Amino acid sequence: MNCCLNLLDLENNKNIITTQNKTHQKIVIFQRIKAKKLSIMQTTKQNSTIASAVVGVPTNDISTFYKNLHSKFNQTRQRTLSLCQDLQPEDFVVQPMADVSPTKWHLAHTTWFFETFLLVPYLKNYKVFQEEYNYLFNSYYETVGKRVLRTDRGNLTRPTTEEIYEYRKYVDNSLSLFFEELIKNNEKNNFDSETEAEIKKRLFIGLNHEEQHQELLVTDIKYVLGNNPLFPAVKMPIEDFTIFKSKKEVENIEDKKEDFIKIKEGIYQIGFQSEDKEEFYFDNEKGVHRIFVEEFEISKNLVTNREYLEFIEAGGYQNFNFWLAEGWDFVNKNKLKAPLYWFEANENWFYYDFNQKENGLQKLDLDAPLCHVSFYEAEAYSQFRNMRLPTEHEWEIANEFFEWGKRWEWTRSAYQPYPNFEKDEGALGEYNGKFMINQLVLRGSSEATAPNHSRYSYRNFFHADKRWQYTGIRLVK
Ligand SMILES: [Fe+2]
């Protein structure tokens, strides 16, 4: 997410050839990315904002730009509500574990975000809907003040869900007024250019923040319902997720069914780079830099339920040899023997999911990509197969050669700042940087991710024990 002028002027030299191996055909890809300008680091260092390159919009198109953004804003806010269309009033309130936030909290918090970071500072004569909401719906922004403990979000029976829907309407209407102000500003010049750039940046962050919470809303309510012994069948309109097709076919090969793609050793560029000034990205993706990787082979496919079941049936959860020490403690302490939402009955495996015809519990689809595993389980499975998880760099380098978008893919990379990472000033500087400790990077996106939300450089992150996101496994050898 950045206003940066990310004109890296790169030239990608990619040569693709194939070779024969004695046992089976191998695909060898030589990918050499050459930076024409050695001033990359200096260029990216100037990119100190989080939001994407909205500054570059020509002034005469500014009305159209804001009209389009307003329309996108309305669609995004509406999509959040559509995710709740099949929920019952009681579903909106509970918080069965600390990681899960109640649905109504998501609805309010995303609204609070727009109110706090846009309307309060920039809309003239704006009156906050309810002063106390700052305490109730601030998530983690120390700059903004004290807040309800995360673990207590499910104790808030008031405000009611209905009142939160009113809050959303109030803020949406105020934002419509604000968009009108921004369009008028083109003629009246109410905001100076620096202020307007900051407003644009915050609008983009607000939209992407709402999209992130759409996914959290889905995963959180799945945890609520998937742990209910009634396993209610619920419709969740998330079919609009994006599949990122492989962009590059490996040429001149006879066997296109080869499961692993070989990437040659070399120096590669990592980090968000685009000549599209309007493309959005987060601060944790910026800072293009070069890294060296050894040759590796990455699977074209995600691990399936059928493959993971082999691990279970081979006693994978009972064999310490596959597990990291922390992972072994984790599975034993929690008596785990399968991924989250898997249930065994009469020697058959069942799985809880949305959009089922009758009961939310269905027979396990063996061909579906595995979902809802922790990093510990992903790592143990890779050991079982005598392989490993990719690093986040390997994933990014290879992503154009495989399809992705169904599962967030665990990597073996710690969530660290890229070289030249800079926190934004003020409260929004708390968005990503302060979480760069004790977490692992996940790449890709999932069936629960809002459409077109992710990209090849997107860095998601979770602690190693988390299983309630749509997480899966891709192997490297
Ligand atoms: Fe948030």
Give average pLDDT, whole number. 86
Instruction: Return the domain count.
Output: 2
Sketch the topology as an H/E string, one letter per element. EEHHHHHHEEEEHHEEEHHEEEE
What ions, cofactors and ligands are bound? fe (ii) ion
Distance between the termini: 33 Å
Instruction: Give, in spatial order, the strands making up the sheet with the most strands.
Output: 1-2-3-6
Q: Shape from CA axes?
A: globular
Strand content: 5-15%
The helix count comes to 10
User: What is Rg?
Assistant: 23 Å
Taking pLDDT < 50 over at least 5 consecutive residues as the criterion, the unreliable ranges are 1-56
User: Fraction of residues in helices?
Assistant: 25-40%
DSSP, total strands: 13
* Class based on secondary structure composition and strand pairing: alpha+beta
Largest sheet: 4 strands, mixed
Short description:
Helix content is 31%, strand content 14%. It has 477 residues and is α+β, with helices and mostly antiparallel strands. Mean pLDDT is 86; it is low at 1-56.
